[in-house]
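worker-3 :: picked Nadp(+)-dependent dehydrogenase
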Amino acid sequence: MSYTPTTHNASYEAISAKNHSISAAGKVVLITGAGSGIGDAASFSFAKAGAKALILLGRRVNLLEKVAKSIREESFTTETACYAVDVCDEKVVKSTMNQAVSKFGRIDIVIHAAGALPPLGPLATVPLDNLWRAFEVNIKGFLTLAQAMLAITTSEQEGPSQPVLVVLNTAGSIMPPLPGMGGYVASKMSTLKLAEYVAAENKDKLRVISVHPGLIQTPMAAELEKAGLKFPYDDISLPADFLVWVASQEAAFLNGKFVFANWDVKELKASAEKIEGGADLSLMLKGL
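worker-3 :: tokens ->
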């Protein structure tokens, strides 16, 4: 399943964090789920891309501090700040963002890599309390971040200065049912549609893009493997660097859209006018 003829399984020149045309120089970047997996890898990519500061959010501050220490050891000039945060806690998220703005002056980019995988199994028997907690993390967590970001974005901004919110999603949101995955996919599909609405309602204040990161070997993927779901994995460099590109001005035409990190960005840009002005890469009902 690909929108572009060319696909990728690892980073490449056009999305490389070292590509000056998508530089994050001077940008203040907030990343949720930064203690492991894609959030961890994306932190390094934004540091390589020259970000001024990284605000690392996650549940376990010891993991965040380990990421920050590794970034410092790589001699990147990027400043770091770590906060233990539950993305569903509105007061804490807003307070953390306000602290970050006080420290760094603003937040330019938010990468929402945090997510929850509910128990896998038939919806007839899955524990509803556990499933609903995943809905909270995946849906309320996104809206909490979006509202907090909009609260600190008080004026209309366009072009390179417009703040960007990127939320990770799953290809399952647009694919036929995969038994056992109903709770997770339904929560992510809801988030996908909400992201479209946040983008539509705030197009002069905030750019919002949903990204399927590829199939990456993360702790969440390990849980899927335990349930017998195995996939051919992509290299984690793919989403890590793609997130730098999609947060750059080159990807401004993708506001409100859903894209796969595997898709070739040069070919995406060649279809920019069609994508920006039409229904491509939006959640729709096939056949209508």
